[in-house]
Specification:
By secondary structure, the chain is α/β, with parallel strands linked by helices. About 25% of the residues lie in helices and about 20% in strands. The chain has nine helices and 13 strands. It has a seven-stranded mixed sheet. A hairpin with a 4-residue loop joins strand 10 and strand 11 (about 215-220). It is globular. It binds zinc ion (ZN). Zinc ion binds near residues 1, 106, 111 and 219.
Length: about 280
């Protein structure tokens, strides 16, 4: 989503990322540490999405790691989520040094996160959609439509507080990046194929990891409702161009994938066609 807040670490109760799946090592120590320990531990490892793909983040915001010969990061969550990355990589026997690419779906602060810090720590190439490049370079981005008038809602109040604690007040500009565009295959970033899905932002892109059957939908789809509705595929509530966001569902619909990893909510296990059908119903 958008801008808000200041400072702090990620709180344990916010880190209990959805239902856990088989995942990377570490459960034994977590279980031995008791419930508080489990929550704390879960905060530090990735949730299994599929082989070599893990979800980091919280119930509010997800970001992803693709582990192959090197490591590609897809979106970065809030800046305060940074430490999840080295901790999760340690669980799969890698270090930050292995990160060679950071691919951003769009320019909002809960997706750009600590991209600049990760870039400077690892030398990774940051990939930014052409249409959102200026926002990533300057950190100046508009609040998506409908957000300001929704801030009174209880879940939004909690989200904005969470954003504040995780340094999400402003987009942290990225000093160096390369741009990408529709149809490109990012050979330096696990071979992600780019699908331009404008609407949430003008430049927004989804990314398809074809061999693994994973579609990273960014905020072109969500499974979490900021207004407190049930979990499941839907359009994000806040879009720069709502009509265009709805039309972009048609770009996702024919893609070949079995898991859809979203910026907000748990991964959806099903095809893009099924997710889009459900989103059209849920989003009226
Ligand atoms: Zn967004």
């Amino acid at each position: 989503m958008s801008d808000s807040g200041v400072c702090g670490g990620v709180r344990v109760q916010e880190m209990q990322v959805v239902r856990r799946r088989p995942r990377v090592r570490g459960c034994v120590a977590a279980c031995a540490a008791g419930e508080a320990g489990v929550e704390s531990r879960l905060a530090m490892v990735g949730e299994f999405v599929t082989d070599g793909v893990y979800r980091l983040g919280t119930v509010w915001v997800g970001w992803y790691v693709i582990v192959d010969e090197s490591v590609t990061v897809v979106d970065c969550g809030f800046p305060g989520y940074h430490d999840q990355l080295p901790n999760a990589l340690a669980e799969v026997g890698r270090s930050l040094d292995a990160v060679s690419a950071v691919v951003l779906t769009h320019y909002h602060s809960d997706h750009v996160g600590a991209a600049e810090r990760i870039r400077s720590e690892t030398g990774a190439t940051v990939y930014v959609p052409t249409g959102d490049a200026e926002g990533v370079r300057t950190g100046k981005v508009p609040m998506p439509g409908g957000m300001a008038s929704s801030l009174w809602r209880p879940r939004m109040v909690r989200y904005m507080a969470h954003a504040a604690r995780n340094e999400g007040a402003k987009v942290r500009p990225v000093a160096e990046f390369r741009t990408y565009q529709d149809g490109e295959v990012l050979t330096g970033a696990s071979g992600l194929r780019v699908v331009h899905t404008p609407g949430h932002t003008a430049g927004h892109c989804a990314l398809l990891l074809e061999p693994a059957g994973v579609l990273f939908a960014g905020d072109a789809l969500a499974t979490f409702d900021f207004f407190g509705g049930p979990a499941g595929p839907r359009l994000v509530r806040f879009n720069e161009d709502a009509r265009q966001a709805r039309e972009s569902l048609s770009r996702l619909e024919p893609l070949d994938a079995t898991v859809i990893a979203v910026g907000h909510g748990s991964p959806f296990r099903g095809t893009p066609a099924a997710a889009v059908a459900a989103a059209r119903v849920a989003s009226g």
